[in-house]
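Weekly structure sync, notes
Attendees: PL (lead), two postdocs, one rotation student
Agenda item 3: pending single-chain targets
PL asked that the sequence for the first pending target be pasted directly into the notes so everyone works from the same version. It is reproduced below exactly as submitted, 166 residues in total.
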Amino acid sequence: MAKARTWILIILASIGTIVLALFVMAGVSTYWVMQHIKTQPATATSAVKTFEQQRAQFGAEQALLTLDDVENPSAIVKKIDRLPAGATPATNMEILVWSPDSERTVRISLPFWLLKLGRRKIDIGGANAFDFDRLRIDVNQLERIGPKLIADLERPGGERVLVWTR
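Predicted structure, written out during the meeting:
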């Protein structure tokens, strides 16, 4: 009887430890997301100001991708392949999005180590959005070229997307 009771205690302690570990992982995950994804209300004027401030750090540098490039994925791959390696590899991909419908800006900071864990391609947005997978852009290539302005796109509906590496 004592032996069976010991096993029951061991099983209950193991289940309790697993449940506790799941709660800790959920808390850490929530904290990480809160630190890397920021969203805030933004009028058209404040969104333009935010984009101009962010864009100013690149000076006259042209974005690697344009809306015309989106229709020609092979040209994008060639353009990235021709770029020399940066002095330092990029560590994060930064994404700034403004949607006039929801009047919100969303700022996302994704470390390259995280991007490499899953697929080596990146999707931004939902249906008919800016799709890195369709464009065949590789995370390793973006990391290799170092800090760079990747895309500064404004869609006909007024949505704006700025993507850069740092």
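Discussion points:
- DSSP finds six helices and five strands in the chain.
- The radius of gyration is 22 Å.
Action: rotation student to compare against the earlier draft before next sync.
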